[in-house]
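Posting for a labmate who doesn't have an account.
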Amino acid sequence: MIEKPPAATLSGELAERIRQDLLDGALPAGSRINEVSLSRELAVSRTPLRAALQMLAGEGLLTYRPNRGFTVRAFPLSEIVDAYEMRALAEGLAARLAAERGLSPDACVKLETALTRGDEILASAAEPNEQRAAYAEVNEVFHSVVHQAASSRLVSDVLRLCQQIPQASAHNILAFEIDDMRERHRFHHRIYDAILAREPREAETLMRQHVISVKTSLIRVTSRQLSRPQAEDAGARKRKTAGK
């Protein structure tokens, strides 16, 4: 007999799956989430699904209104780009401060564990969505430990503001291809080496490049999503014209 996963675990798994759809554009901005249809599609009851949707609302990916339910929140591309630019500056400063101040033994263990775990995840033969979900946690741990090592309240406040736009948060690696994620992970190794070697300028430069490269990938993904409906409309018009 197969045991069912605990409710909290199931809700977390559902949140990861729906988050992927949101970041991939499968659920268009402004669209309303039909909980009944979605629960049938995912073959789950509405209780863990509602918990997952509440998680995503807490992250800012969905909005909730009484009697109307959950709606996909829209973020202009310009706001996402601005958030990444600010995040690159703040994360770069965090890496520089961490290199200047040095890492505690506990921070070293956490970072090395995250790097090793990331290597394992990205080298595995798991299904891509499973790799993304597992690596999202590792990615967030890496960035969080660097932020803590910086010991800067100002940096933490700026990053908290950036993360109000979910697409610009450290958790958001789910919209990218696995090869993109491998490249980001290689950056993590280099950033850690620079911090460990107490090279502030190198650590800052690498971290800024890392965040900007993520921004570039996101813009590429978003541009594809925006061009898809236009291409479909153009194809429909062409077929209509050909049929006359």
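Reply:
Got it, the structure tokens are right above this. Strands lie at 62-65, 69-72.
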